[in-house]
Amino acid sequence: MEAVVVKNLVKTYGKEKTVAVDDVSFSVSRGELFGLIGPDGAGKTSIFRMLTTLLLPDGGSASVDGHDIVKDFRQIRSSVGYMPGKFSLYQDLTIEENLHFFATVFGTTIEENYHLIKDIYVQIEPFKNRRAGKLSGGMKQKLALCCALIHKPTTLFLDEPTTGVDPVSRKEFWEMLARLKEQNITILVSTPYMDEASLCDRIALIQGGKILSIDTPQNIINAYPDRLLAIKANEMYRLLKVLEGHPDILNSYAFGEYAHATFRDADTHALQAYLREHGLTDVEVKDAEVTIEDSFIKLLH
Amino acid sequence: MRTLRFLLRKEFRQIFRDKAIVAMIFFMPMVQLILMPLAADYEVRNINLSVVDHDKSPYSRKLISKIVASGYFRLTGYNASFKEAFGLIESDKADLILEIPHDFEKRLIREDEEKLFIAVNAINGTKASLGGSYLGSIIGDFNADIRMQLVTPPRFSQFPVIDVVGSNWFNPVLNYKVFIVPGILAILVTMVGGFLSALNIVREKEIGTIEQINVTPIKKHIFILGKLIPFWVLANIVFTIGLLVARFVYGIVPVGSLLTLYAFISVYLLAVLGFGLLVSTFCDTQQQAMFIMFFFMMLFILLGGLFTSIDSMPDWAKMITRVNPVRYMIEVMRMVMLKGSSFADVLPHVGIVSLMAAVLNGWAILNYKKTN
Q1: Which stretches of chain B sit within 8 Å of chain A by CB?
Q2: Which range marks the domain in which residue A266 is found?
Q3: A114 lies in the same domain as A245
Q4: pLDDT tens digits, one per residue of B88-110
Q5: For residue B277, which of B162, B200, B347 has the smallest C-alpha distance?
Q6: pLDDT tens column, B272-294
Q7: In which element (H, E) is residue B201 found?
Q8: What strand order describes the sheet that includes A155-159?
């Protein structure tokens, strides 16, 4: 059964009708971990706010657990969990008070659903009498996740949960999501980090309010059409300049210590010779492993 | 109900955790109530007077000492010419010039008539008009004294004289503090309630916590009630503190029943808080809310009848005061505290303010949108 169905959703802002979400359609199955991957301003937050009934769509329709986001907003509000990108719990209340408060407004108690948050809560429990405003970024995220989970939501919306969180906490966070998935909770997560995409069951690559591609991370990588080369030389900036000047170049960009590039006719030997001709030394050319980021860049072009 | 109880517990916790807010709520009104009535004095004293005495006779000296002895005037200049005295007005050292002509005494006795000249600096309107009239009545008094001395009054006065003797009810010695303290208390309660409620929802918007609340199944009216009740309680506490200050600092004991006062203030606060909440549903930042509240508070206070009488306002301004809750509050405070009016007497006020409370709160609930 589909937990979230989005059909031709449109959202525009302001008098100029700036399109934030442009005819977006996708669906998410129950118990799936679905990722919206895209840069800042791609429309991820707008989609989440519409699905959590905070924003009215300007066109199209969507449903969460079979409830329409406009007509049945009441049912949706009591059955989904939402964690906004900006930390929005009460900074002047303690961890315990925040959790208690959100349990109560959803008409439940901490004890009733403690099993859901236990794994996460034990990590912040030593600080339960500390005010939320005084917590570190990672702890805030954990608390926010606890508060979003305390009423045993069927669907969880996490808007950029790992933005501004250190790499270790990010990893922990995704491990927690994997465990939640086992509880058959549908999770929609948005992130600007491409490396997190591979941790989702399926992802939608989104840019400028439009969905570029929806598939499993592996299928998206497999669908990469060209041979991708990783190239290294003594000078990165010169290397990129020289690559751009190559007659057969399709696309080239810096990727860590290498430059990634695709060519109409990828002949590694000829390429090495070409680079040396242009005064580059220590040239290394090899086949690169395609990542989501490469696919995303490809789709943008 | 359980949700509401929790909302309230949360609000109170947040309020009492914010030390600055607690200080603002309890300390500021007390200080203001103790300082403001002492400073905001209606009586004009210390009027700077410059005298140009061309006569220098015993009579003229007597007149001058009588004026200074009244306590309203301060002799800041004793000049030889009007021109010189006018310099004092120009440099703001004198508010009034009294010019006593040559042969003042002689003519007053021989011809039974003499003219004095008073020049008034009318830049400060109140000081000028009050100073002028004080001086006028002192001179009148002086005149009567002289007549008593000079002519043995006949058994019956030759001229019909109407002598007016007034008696001040409810405030026998015209103590302005009795008049102004209840008014200032009314304004303080209004400000505390209005500003706190206006800033609160906006604050949740600014911090973003309202997002999290909006995705919960909390009903709008429960949420608004959760905001209303804490401030209602706080404003009542401020009011009680104010009454105690009035009692023990100024010795003002309400003549009417306290029950009537609290009954009215209960309804009145609902209107004020409703107004604050309404403003906060329209604003996105605390700055906006602050400015809007400030605008309305100024209007409410200046058109509330505390500093200037409503009866002397032009008709259009009178119309505005009808929708000004502060006006009703000040009226009721004075009626009950000074005159001892009963609940039946203030019933029309209660009715109007209830209507305001219903409209403002209803509007606030309608305008509070959980979805944009």
Answers
A1: 2-3, 6-7, 10, 13-14, 17-18, 207-218, 370-372
A2: 229-300
A3: no
A4: 888 888 888 888 888 888 887 77
A5: B200
A6: 999 999 999 999 899 999 999 99
A7: helix B176-207
A8: A80-83, A155-159, A186-191, A33-37, A202-207, A210-215
Residue in B261, B262, B201, B258 with CA at minimum distance from that of residue B226: B201
d(CA A42, CA B21): 40
Distance separating the N- and C-terminal Cα atoms of chain B: 27
Buried b (16+ CB within 10 A) or exposed e, A103-128: bbbbeeebeebeebbeebbeebeebe
Q: Which chain B residues are within 8 Å of A87, Cβ to Cβ?
A: 208
| Together in a domain, A86 and A118 | yes
Chain A contact set for B2 (CB, 8 A)? 104, 107
Q: Which residue has the tokens 């109007």?
A: B352
Read off the pTM: 0.76
Domain boundary among the residues A222, A251, A271 is at A222
Q: In chain B, what are the domains?
A: 2-40+172-367 (no CATH), 47-150 (3.40.1710.10)
Q: Which of A80, A104, A147 sits opposite B6 (nearest CB)?
A: A104
Residues A97 and A158 in one domain: yes
Among A187, A206, A222, which residue terminates a domain?
A222
Q: How far is CA A180 from the centre of its chain?
A: 17
CATH number of the domain encompassing residue A218: 3.40.50.300
Nearest to B9 by CA among A246, A6, A98, A292: A98
Nearest residue of B to residue A11 by CA position? B372
Mind listing the pLDDT tens digit for each residue in A226-243? 888 899 888 888 888 888
